[in-house]
Write a structure and sequence with these properties.
The complex is a heterodimer of chains A (393) and B (232). Chain A is of the alpha+beta class and 393 residues long. In chain A, 50% of the residues lie in helices and 18% in strands. The chains are: A alpha+beta (393), B alpha/beta (232).
């Protein structure tokens, strides 16, 4: 047996390019449907697990998928905005706790999640180091963010501008890291959490600037009236909230009208959840309430349908490839007739010679299968992340 | 050692037929078979080796009647007692020289490949001047080197009977002598029998007997065979 395998191996090594092409082809035939199945299954588990743990979401009427993806996975596309009053009314109803979510801004590629401290309890997040954000301008970073940016409590991160070429837009805010979360293996690892008010400051809805009553600011004041002061651009606006300037930060207008991307709703019980959902059934209501698990299941159904089409196509291609490989093998037997005859002449039995040829096929199949298994394992491990990044991009 | 009696062999629809009423080769004898192409010289070697079987008649090789035996039984006789040198060398391109020499051991379950055999193969390679080329593949060798590898492959199992088909064909005089020296040294040392098919009349002097298939195009007769038998 060892000699049979040795002869087969020498043949395959000598024809290494032919062997490599054959192995790659068979590997792809096996890997594509299996790997695709693995990645869809794993992605589905990942996506569904987080969605299932989130009872309800309130957001502006529009795409429920966009709402769920932004709220649960912090996707870059954010839905139409709702007022902060939605979160307040949920809590005031006594039926549920409303956790505000404002997921619009980013720090490099990391989403900045404007929320409340309740979010950490709801998601079961614990701190690896530091503490929750306590004052305006502080943030808590996920484990992956801390690792990628190399930050720890006491360091700072900057929000990114929404559009680079908008000179009149919001300037980046320097945020002090108060704590780092334990790795949760969820999108929270990749997020930067701030209080909703800090998120509004990033947007420019709240701001801090030089005291216009001070004499050194007088050159920048254009006009003063009893309840209004108009100043020019020379007035210094703060892009960092410190103990010295925190008092100068203020919000104009009614906070209840300030924007959120969603409200994460945690009903007191099932009945409360049903009542809440009923309130949003009215067509006149400008917002919607969704069960994330239902939304994600619908999304996965679509993906599964696509997967089935792809698998069907792969099976057809695989059949053609197997038929071609078989043809190539049979033709190669014809080309190797002389070699086979030589082995017979010097004493090789038909079984022995056939075993050698079969061993070649077996080695190719084993190598292809092993390679496909390795690829599937890699896909199983990293595929969901890639797929999620595609879905959430 | 070899006995052929009333042999009849043909293939195609009468395109070729070979008839040999009687032929004997004694043990330790060296015989050259000459004659025109297509006259049946290689076919005779195949019949003696049990690669082909006659329609009628008997072929006795190394004391065993080949005709009438199953393929497996003829193969066993071939493995144990016959070394074959092919006209076109028939080296496997994907094996290096050393593995080509040891191919009979790798392809036959009944032959055990061990250290002694490897050493024997190395010694033979050294003797014919290709010891430094054992790791090369056949396509990296000259014609002469390939022929020497083919000869060593036949000798490594130490068979009592050697059947060589044009072992010096396409070789320069130096390599021709080298290959013949190897074969005849082996025959002398092991008291082996050598039957060689050749077109090369310059080497006939080295053989004890020459069988001439002249004017023999698949119609061997008693007279023709007798006319060449015993010629030296």
């Amino acid at each position: 047996m060892r000699d049979v395998l040795y002869l087969a191996w020498r043949y395959l090594v000598y024809h290494r390019w032919k062997t490599a092409i054959l192995i790659t082809s068979i590997m792809l035939i096996v890997y594509l449907p299996v790997g695709l199945n693995a990645v869809v299954e794993r992605s589905g588990e990942h996506l569904t697990a987080r969605a299932a743990a989130t009872p309800l979401l309130i957001g502006a009427k529009g795409s429920p998928i966009e709402l769920a993806l932004n709220s649960l996975y912090f996707s870059a596309e954010y839905p139409a905005l709702i007022d902060y009053s939605e979160a307040m009314s949920v809590t005031e109803s006594g039926l549920a706790d409303g956790i505000p979510l404002y997921v619009r801004f980013r720090s490099r590629s990391h989403p900045i999640v404007g929320t409340s401290l309740d979010y950490f309890d709801f998601q079961g997040l614990s701190f690896a180091t530091g503490r929750p954000m306590a004052v305006l301008g502080e943030c808590v970073v996920g484990a992956a963010v801390a690792e990628t940016l190399g930050v720890q409590p006491g360091d700072a991160v900057f929000s990114s501008t929404e559009t680079v070429f908008d000179l009149a837009g919001v300037y980046p805010l320097k945020m002090k890291v108060a704590g780092v979360l334990e790795r949760a293996f969820t999108p929270d690892d990749n997020a930067i959490f701030v209080d909703a008010k800090t998120a509004w400051i990033i947007e420019g809805l709240g701001h801090g600037h030089q005291d216009l009553a001070l004499p050194e600011a007088s050159s920048g004041v254009l006009s003063r009236s009893e309840d209004n002061i108009v100043a020019n651009a020379s007035i210094v606006q703060y892009n960092e909230i410190t103990a010295e300037n925190v008092d100068s930060f203020h919000f104009h207008g009614d906070l209840s009208n300030y924007p959120l991307t969603a409200v994460l709703v945690v009903p007191k019980d099932e009945k409360s959840g049903v009542i809440l959902r009923g309130r949003f059934a009215d067509a006149d209501v400008s917002s919607q309430i969704v069960r994330p698990v239902t939304v994600i299941d619908e999304l996965l159904d679509t993906i599964l349908t696509i997967q089935q089409f792809i698998v069907a196509a792969v099976i057809i291609v695989a059949s053609a490839t197997v038929a071609t490989a078989a043809l190539v093998f049979l033709l190669s037997l014809k080309l190797r007739r002389r070699e086979i005859d030589t082995m017979h002449k010097i004493g090789g039995s038909r079984l022995r010679v056939a075993s050698t040829l079969f061993a070649e096929v077996l080695i190719v199949v084993i190598l292809s299968g092993s390679l496909a298994a390795v690829m599937t394992m890699i896909t199983w491990r990293y595929g969901p992340g890639v797929i999620e990044s595609f879905i959430l991009a | 050692m070899i006995e052929v009696r009333d042999l009849q062999f043909s293939y195609g629809e009468g395109d070729f037929s070979l008839q040999i009423p009687r032929l004997e080769v004694a043990g330790g004898e060296t015989v050259a078979i000459v004659g025109p192409s297509g006259s049946g010289k290689t076919t005779l070697l195949n019949l003696i080796a049990g690669i082909a079987t006659p329609q009628s008649g008997e072929v006795v090789t190394n004391g065993q009647t080949m005709s009438g035996l199953h393929d497996a039984a003829r193969r066993d006789i071939r493995i144990a007692g016959i070394g074959l040198v092919f006209q076109e060398f028939e080296l496997l391109e994907y094996l290096n020289v050393f593995d080509n020499i040891l191919l009979p051991y790798r392809i036959n379950r009944t032959l055990a490949l061990n250290v002694a055999i490897r050493e024997r193969a190395e010694a033979l390679a050294k003797r014919v001047g290709i010891a430094d080329k054992l790791s090369r593949h056949a396509d990296q060798l000259s014609q002469g080197e390939r022929q020497r590898v083919a000869v060593i492959r036949a000798l490594v199992v130490q068979p009592p009977l050697l059947l060589a088909d044009e072992p010096t064909g396409n070789l320069d005089p130096l390599n021709k002598d080298r290959v013949l020296d190897i074969l005849f040294q082996y025959v002398e040392q092991h008291a082996a029998t050598l039957i060689t098919v050749t077109h090369d009349h310059d080497i006939l002097d080295r053989f004890q007997r020459v069988i001439d298939f002249k004017d023999f195009y698949g119609h061997a007769t008693q007279r023709q065979i007798e006319s060449v038998a015993g010629q030296t």
